[in-house]
Structures are given as structure tokens and as C-alpha cells.
Automatic annotation (TrEMBL):
This is SDR family oxidoreductase. Belongs to the short-chain dehydrogenases/reductases (SDR) family. InterPro entries: KR_dom, NAD(P)-bd_dom_sf, SDR_fam. It comes from Rhodococcus oryzae. Keywords: Oxidoreductase. NCBIfam families: PRK08251.1 (NF006099). SUPFAM superfamilies: NAD(P)-binding Rossmann-fold domains. Residues 9-196 form the Ketoreductase domain.
């Protein structure tokens, strides 16, 4: 951890029914953290809760069904979980979609749904989280963006990369505003980590398995930096390259 980081004992994770969210829950549970888990599929959350409590009976796990596109519900559910667990001190904005189609090809629904969930849903979660943290003058907001946010991507990934760039911008703006505050803001940019959202991605040596990839995410979150690219190798060098290489070359990385 950095000198300003602290142990956060009560963590809310959205999009926790599968993929990165579920594995983050498992890894934070192994550290003895109390968890608030949200997702649309409550049956999956109940199964995960039972799994976590069986493995770690000393922790508390609260679950709620939540569609992050229901913005009023986001605020209500975050407040309920904050009350139930006696105060959330880290909120991980993780829920997201990976749908997409080339823009202008007659399939706008997938792009609009991805933009709605990934940007407006993340903004609603940031609003609800920051309202709690500002009221108590402390907390850690984590925004899960993507390496796709670093550079606009072509074809079916254009809307997705744009939505994740918006998430990164939220994190950058809040981190700048709160740089002298006890409230920490971290933007996580994962590279390829095997989850249901990218199961159709062609086989690539850049793909990390779920457990190892999420381990790098959790380690970065615990340090509480403003921005973290994970896994560090090979994605930190790729992050630098994406910022300076011409467009004709960047498509080789993503």
C-alpha cells in the first residue's frame, strides 16, 4: 500500500454475479473483508454468498438485486447496504456490458445499451458512492475501466471503448478534485482477463486467466493509486505505446 492507503474492511462490488466481480468478491473474502454484492441476477449472488460464507464464516456478506440502469435504485440500494453493514468504506463500480456493432450498420441497440450501462450506469454509481463518502469524509471509490479506454477502437468495439473512456474521465476528474481529501479514487484499466464478457475474443497470449488477472486488480486496488493498468505485464508497456503510436499500428494490441 501507499503511505496514504488504508485497510478497507467493508467493500461493495457491483456486477458481482460473475466474471471480474465474482472473483474480486472471492479474493477480498479471503482477506477477511465484509462484502456487499450487487447484480441483476440475485440467484447467482445467493449462490456466491453461500460459497463465500462456507469458506470464510467470520465475514458478513449482504446481497441485493440491482440494475445499474435504474438510477434511483442505485442510490437506494447503496444506502441500504451502507446501513446494513455499518458503513461502506470501498465501492467498486464494476458492472458493465461488452455488446457492440460497427456504428451505422443498422444495429444501434447494442451500442446504446453498452453506452447506457457502462457510462450512465457508472456515473449513477459514482454519484451514489460519493454522496456516502462525502457525508462521512472518507472512503475509496474504484472505477473499473478498460485498456480499451486508452485509444478509440474500430468496428464493434468503438462504442465500448468510448464508454470506458468516459469511465476513466470520471475517475480522473474526481481524483484531481479530491487529491487533498481523505477520499481516494482509483481507476483500474484491465487488459485481457478471461471472463464471460470476452469469451468470444480470439485466443491470444495476452489473455490472463481469471484468478491471476483479478489478483493483479485486487493488489492494485489495495494500493489505492489514481490509475492502475493490470496485469502490469505486458499491459503497462502497451499502455504507453497506445498513447504515442499511429492508429495503423495500435490495432495490433487490442
Amino acid at each position: 500500500m501507499t503511505s496514504t492507503a488504508k485497510t478497507r474492511t467493508t467493500i461493495l462490488i457491483t456486477g458481482a454475479s460473475s466474471g471480474l466481480g465474482a472473483e474480486m468478491a472471492r479474493q477480498f473474502a479471503s482477506k477477511g473483508r465484509d462484502l456487499a454484492l450487487c447484480a441483476r441476477r440475485i440467484d447467482r449472488l445467493e449462490e456466491l454468498r453461500a460459497e463465500l460464507l462456507a469458506a470464510h464464516p467470520s465475514i458478513r456478506v449482504a446481497v441485493r438485486a440491482l440494475d445499474v440502469n435504474d438510477h434511483r435504485a442505485v442510490s437506494r440500494v447503496f444506502g441500504e447496504l451502507d446501513d446494513e453493514l455499518g458503513g461502506l468504506d470501498r465501492i467498486v463500480v464494476n458492472a458493465g456490458l461488452g455488446k457492440g456493432a460497427p456504428i451505422g450498420t443498422g444495429k444501434p441497440e447494442a451500442n446504446l445499451e453498452t453506452a447506457q450501462t457502462n457510462f450512465l450506469g457508472a456515473l449513477a454509481q459514482a454519484e451514489a458512492a460519493m454522496e456516502l463518502f462525502r457525508a462521512r469524509g472518507a472512503g475509496h471509490l474504484v472505477l473499473v475501466s478498460s485498456m480499451s479506454a486508452v485509444r478509440g477502437l474500430p468496428k464493434a468495439q468503438t462504442a465500448y471503448s468510448a464508454s470506458k473512456a468516459a469511465v476513466s474521465a470520471i475517475g480522473e476528474g474526481l481524483a484531481a478534485e479530491l487529491s487533498r481529501s481523505p477520499i481516494a479514487v482509483t481507476t483500474i484499466l484491465p487488459g485481457y482477463i478471461r471472463t464471460p464478457i470476452n469469451e468470444k475474443v480470439a485466443k491470444t497470449p495476452l489473455m490472463a486467466d481469471t484468478v491471476a488477472g483479478v489478483r493483479s486488480m485486487v493488489k492494485a486496488i489495495e494500493r489505492e493509486p489514481r490509475r492502475a493498468v493490470v496485469p502490469g505485464w505486458p499491459w503497462r508497456p502497451i499502455d504507453l505505446a497506445l498513447r504515442v503510436l499511429p492508429q495503423r499500428l495500435t490495432g495490433r494490441f487490442l
